[in-house]
Amino acid sequence: MALATFGIITRRWKPTYLSVDSYNSYRGLSDHIPENLFLERITDLNLFIEKNYPHVYPDSYMFLVAIILIILAAVFSIVTRVLDISLWYPLLILIAPALIAYWTTRRRGFYYLRLNKFYDSLYTHLKEISSNDAPHHIRWGYRRLRDDDTADTLHLTQDISHWRIAFVIEIIQLDPEIDHSHNGQEVLPAYNAASQDVVLDIGPDIIVRPTAEQHNGDQEEGAVQGITTTTNTISNRSATNDNNTLMAEPPTYRQSIDLGTPPPYLRPPQD
Fold first, then answer.
1. Region entry Disordered: which residue ranges (predicted)?
2. Is 165 domain-assigned?
3. What H or E segment, with its residue span, contains residue 230?
4. Checking CA distances to 55, which of 78, 115, 121, 130 falls within 20 to 30 Å?
5. Number of domain units in the chain
């Protein structure tokens, strides 16, 4: 069960921040964590996000500076043409927009790499906070924005469509009976405890002797099995004889061919 949910708001012209409402607005949170500790955790998360999150606002400002420099270069070119002044070196200010474009392109290329690195560090940081807050039976975690998230659940002043929410941090209530040191995983018992839980086979061996009816039934079953075996043997032999008969060689027939009287040139000479 989520006790509190906070949205990470990204802005184009300002740094990314953690949207947090007052302590009393989160119902059920006061039963698990005091207000001073809550404010301390929120301040720590805000500093962590401000320091490690790959913000977008520097790119916006650098893009604006590049546009201003290009406009100044165009105005200077028009003024020099009107006043018939031959000056070229002030046009070197166009190098600055080129450098800014290269810098922003490089930052955007590595944006997702830095974002994945931030998620890894955030996971480690929230895991440390959860281990410290284990006596309060709560756990800190983060997730993506879901369809069932609304402005009321995230405690936003406007509709959720007016905000750019990168991800969500939430405080989850844990069951006090679960061992938090193992993060809710099942713990196997110790070897000594498991060995003591073995049921030993104690008592005399019971020998079951067959009765007379069972003995007669076994004899009849053996006789039937012997008859069946003999019948199968005879059937196999008859099948073998039939196969030999079918595979015998066909009889040889003589065929006489009358070639007639040979022509004169093939007859032997007569004395």
1. 213-271
2. yes
3. helix 212-246
4. 130
5. 1
Q: Do 106 and 137 meet the contact criterion of CB atoms below 8 Å apart?
A: no
Token pair of 69, please? 């420099």
Its pTM surpasses 0.70: no
Counting every residue, how long is the chain?
271
Q: For 120-144, how does the pLDDT look when each residue is reduced to its tens digit (9 = 90+)? A: 999 999 999 999 988 888 999 999 9
Question: Is residue 20 within 8 Å of residue 123, measured between CB atoms?
Answer: no
β-sheet with 2-9: strand ranges across? 17-19, 2-9, 165-173, 138-143
Question: What range does the domain containing 138 cover?
Answer: 2-56+112-182
Residue showing tokens 């959720």: 160
The three-class DSSP label of residue 56 is coil
Q: List Cβ neighbours of 2 (8 Å cut-off, separation of 6 or more).
A: 170, 171, 172, 173
